[in-house]
Design goal:
Blueprint: E1 3-8, H1 16-30, E2 35-40, H2 46-53, E3 57-60, H3 68-79, E4 84-89, H4 92-104, E5 109-114, H5 124-137, E6 143-146, H6 149-159, E7 166-168, E8 193-197, H7 206-217, E9 224-228, H8 244-254, E10 261-265, H9 270-274, E11 279-282, H10 296-303, E12 307-311, E13 327-329, H11 334-345, H12 353-366, H13 369-382
Helix pairs in contact: 3-4, 7-11, 10-12
Length: 389
């Protein structure tokens, strides 16, 4: 059986991309398409161990910016005499390694699953350099799978990639539990509880949520917030070296809302953590360190008939239609987030049944994991990696 190689740098915890790689590998193997192999920067990371626990091979190769060529050389040695059909990459750094592999081994296809392209945290000159590098080397990418129309447009317009090589394919997600039942008491608001599921990094907008809670508290509206996620980075400018969790805790204390916030931490059982919570928020911002694609936490919320309130960044608007299947606000607009929260928790719960149903139906029709996998298989067929039925 031919091998499908996934190149992915390790991280502190399992994010949405890592879980998708594991799930995709399991399905490709179970359907008899490919033998999955992972090459990561730390085979002892949670990601590496999770992939290995599925019975797949894992290799460790350093992949920092300064080690692009040496990483490619080491990986080519690993792949020597192996029957590899394609390599999957997800970030530019990994993709540059994939391009070297593709140049040296023309029989190996290179699929670039673009999640972030590139981060808005980069200065303009660095983004232009990114586009130039991509333009000069994209001949060694066989297919760009862009996680959102906004990414497809950027790839084509900024890097001059042939549109025929770019496919827009939004992420999918399996249900993680039973969807919420319709409300039984129509004239009362939803329980004033919200949850946010995201790693603790500056770009996720935890500070925006805390400030929104403070705005509402001044109006005598107190909302319980459960923050679910592991420590994923340190503070922003002026707070270097401090965990982001500690910064958010300090902010909550200074604004007088710390008693409303539960720092739940990381959990594998997200469903249990949000089962009794009707509203999921994600106030990410595109300007610092991170840009959302198709966030897993929103897909999970949609599949559970939760009400979604999120910032309008990345591909979020391709999932949630403002006022129809959820509420959107501008990034970093804590007042806008507060307004949406106030609207939800000051109105009868019945007012939001159509909105919750619209999100749930959108997930069923467009965002299940099976739908995503079938579309990826179609891409493999077009690349000649899998025979047409």
């Amino acid at each position: 059986m031919k091998e499908m190689v996934f190149l992915r740098q390790s991280s502190v915890s399992m994010g949405g991309v890592e879980w998708q790689i594991v799930k995709l590998a399991e399905i490709l193997s179970s359907r008899g398409y490919f033998k999955p192999v992972l090459i990561t920067s730390d085979d002892q990371s949670v990601f590496g161990k999770t992939f290995a626990a599925c019975g797949f091979e894992v290799f460790s190769v350093p992949m920092s910016n300064k080690k692009t060529f040496s990483a490619a050389v080491k990986i080519l040695r690993i792949l020597k005499n192996r029957d590899v059909a394609a390599v999957h990459t997800h970030l530019l750094q990994e993709s540059l390694i994939g391009r070297i592999i593709r140049k040296k081994r023309p029989n190996i296809r290179h699929i670039f699953r673009v999640e972030v392209y590139p981060s808005d945290a980069n200065p303009i000159w660095k983004k232009k350099f990114f586009y130039l590098v991509d333009k000069l080397t994209n001949r060694w990418v066989d297919c760009y799978i862009a996680n959102g129309r906004y990414l497809s447009d950027e790839i084509i317009n900024c890097s001059g990639v042939n549109p025929k090589k770019v496919v827009t394919l939004l992420n999918g997600r399996d249900p993680i539990g039973l969807p919420d039942e319709p409300v039984k008491i129509f004239d009362k608001p939803l329980p004033a509880k919200i949850a946010m599921v995201a790693n603790f990094i500056p770009g996720k907008g935890y500070d925006c949520l805390v400030k929104a809670l403070a705005v509402l508290k001044k109006k005598n509206i107190e909302i319980e917030a459960r923050l679910i996620g592991s420590e994923g980075g340190t503070g922003s400018e002026g707070n270097e070296g401090r965990s982001h969790t500690s910064i958010i805790k300090e902010l909550a204390e200074s604004l007088g809302v710390s008693k409303q916030i539960e720092f739940y931490g990381y959990t594998k059982d997200v469903y249990k953590a949000i089962e009794e919570i009707p509203v999921i928020v994600l106030p990410s911002r595109s300007a610092l360190h991170h840009r959302e694609g198709i966030p897993n936490c929103i897909l999970e919320a949609m599949s559970l008939r939760k009400l979604v309130i999120a910032s309008n960044v990345g591909g979020v608007s391709e999932m949630i239609e403002d006022g129809k299947s959820g509420f959107l606000h501008n990034p970093e607009d804590f007042a806008g987030l507060a307004d949406n929260l106030e609207r939800v928790f000051s109105s009868p719960a019945a007012d939001w049944e159509d909105m919750r149903n619209a999100a749930f139906q959108n997930w069923q029709q467009n965002f299940t994991f099976d739908i995503m996998i079938d579309k990826i298989i179609d891409i493999y067929k077009e690349l000649g990696l899998v025979n047409h039925d």
